[in-house]
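ok trying again, last paste got cut off:
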Amino acid sequence: RYPDTVRVVAMGADLAAVAAAPADEKWAAYSIELCGGTHVASTADIGSLVIVEESAIAKGIRRMVAVTGDVADAARLLHQRLAADVARLGALQGSAALDAEIKRLAKEIDAASIGVYDKYVLRAEFEAIRTAFAESERAAKAQAGKAAAEFVQTTIDASAPEQEVLVLRLPAAGKAMSQAAKLVKDLATKAVLLIAEDGPTKVAHQCVVPKPLVARGLKASDWAAAVSAVVGGKKGGNDESAQGSGSEVSKIDDAIVAAQEFATVHLK
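nice, full thing came through this time. structure:
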């Protein structure tokens, strides 16, 4: 609520003329505001100004928040740095590095106190890159899964009928290993253990044993435990299907040997 007499500040309009004809429609073209008190003698004292927030606070009423002076200059510098970081995303090599940088920038851009329009443009550019990366990753994982399944299928087809156990190293874990394991399970002809690096510091392994071979002494959960004992980490599963992970990437070859020996000893 305002008192009977209030201060009015106008940009470009003659307040005496406004007071003489307040209903004149031409005043709609000017900024004429009720003011509780100004803080500077002139707009020159404000220096830089950056609008950092614009939002609805009630029906038909929106709120704008701006920073000035050194704070506004800092907001502009922050926007320039973030824009440069976004522009450099395309130069990053390797999906892991790009994924990490995208996650970092997503948080920084959301939290950044920069110009509203600057943030809108920056987000649009960033989201285009993030979307393209996500689509590329999905396609790469799908291709890796297909390649892994084909490799396992080819290896099984090329193996002798009497060769009941295979231990295979895959080029990738994740979806590729899951698809390959599903193929083995559907075929239900051989016991197969799959192992692969899951990033630079992890090992993933998964094994499938058909029921006839379980009955002869080779249980998937025990097989996975033997591999986990070499590469570290945990394992889980049942007699027919089990999986595990570890951190000893350098011991994958040792784990392959251990898996082959375990199957040889326990399959009667």
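cool. Helices lie at 15-20, 69-88, 95-111, 116-158, 175-187, 211-214, 220-231, 252-266. The beta strands are 7-11, 31-35, 49-58, 61-68, 165-169, 191-197, 203-208, 234-237, 241-246.
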